[in-house]
Amino acid sequence: EVQLVESGGGLVQAGGSLRLSCTASGITFDAYAIGWFRQAPGKEREGVSCISSSDGSTHDADSVKGRFTMSSDNAKNTVYLQMNSLKPEDTAVYYCAAKLWLGGPCTVVVGRRGSGMDYWGKGTLVTVSS
Q: Which residues are CB-neighbours of 115 under 8 A, at least 6 positions away?
């Protein structure tokens, strides 16, 4: 059984930082593209960041570029999302998801807002207070 488990969410003041983690069991990240997505109440799901297993390249949505950084530790089967300079509009449930990846940049993972991903975690709530 494949499981993705997110952790690291919480309440933080605007301008603060959080690091989210996503650990997988049942798959090995080095064959997948992993994406972080978020959904705020009443809003559509949004792609945040992704990392490609083939070359380790990442792609960030414009809304988080320069503030969020995605990384991976394949030995631990874990990816991270370092979130700095958080804003109230970053408040959302954050999900990680995995898609079997044949290679190349993962840009479409973010652009498709998570459509077509193979596995999903249950999410972790991030709340940024003003």
A: none
**What type of residue sits at position 106?**
C
Residue 123: both structure tokens together:
């999410």
What are the pLDDT tens digits along the chain (130 aa)?
999 999 999 999 999 999 999 999 999 888 899 999 999 999 999 999 999 987 889 999 999 999 999 999 988 999 999 999 999 999 999 999 999 998 888 988 888 889 999 999 999 999 999 9
20: which DSSP letter? E
Q: Is 65 helix (H, G, I), strand (E, B) or coil?
A: coil
Residue 34's H or E segment, with its range, is strand 32-39
Report the C-alpha gap between 130 and 53 in whole angstroms.
Answer: 36
* Residue 87 CB-half CA count within 13 A: 8
